[in-house]
């Protein structure tokens, strides 16, 4: 995939196709969103797309423990790029209450997810160090059976140090997962992934496998 606009189009199309399939099969679409800069263009594409928004349910792969209106919040980015501009019912958007602090927020989000089955689609990014969501090298990724759905991250290697992340086990409980990867700085992480090295992104392993969309 040669450039960011192509990645944005492909990612938006992938999300819309997954939505249409899920709504046909089950009447609802349960989607986990990635944060960071890479998916922003895809979210803007979705804002311009026709869809049955009333059937969509939105969750977040991770969140920074900052105030709700802080520009660093993944939920705020998704809102400004897309969610605030479409007729998606507010009660079907489920932000992580990270303003409560990592431990309280992780418990609350894990509780909120108890009634949610397999996600239809999980969208994730990839960091230069191989992290995804807020699952960082050298930390607990929540891979083990019985791991909590959401993890409190108290010592992230970059600010803010407190975050909440869905666990690798919960991210893997999904019908589809797609990673969006952009930029020359991710080349080494991609090489490590292809080589089978134990980077955090590799811990997300749905039964159907994962797809990776890459732009330079």
List the helices and strands and how they pair.
Elements: H1 4-26, E1 29-33, H2 40-47, E2 56-60, E3 62-64, H3 74-81, H4 102-112, E4 121-125, E5 150-153, E6 163-166, H5 168-172, E7 177-182, H6 187-194, E8 211-215
Parallel strand pairs: 1-2, 1-4, 4-7, 7-8
Antiparallel strand pairs: 3-6, 5-6
- The number of strands is 8
Count of helix runs: 6
Could you tell me the strand content as a percent range? 15-25%
Q: Report how far apart the termini are.
A: 8 Å
Give the biggest beta sheet.
5 strands, parallel
Percent in helix: 25-40%
Low-confidence stretches: none
* Backbone shape: globular
Overall SS class: alpha/beta
Oligomer: single chain
C-alpha Rg (nearest Å)? 16 Å
Order of SSEs: HEHEEHHEEEHEHE
| Major beta sheet, strand line-up | 2-1-4-7-8
Question: How confident is the prediction overall: mean pLDDT?
Answer: 96
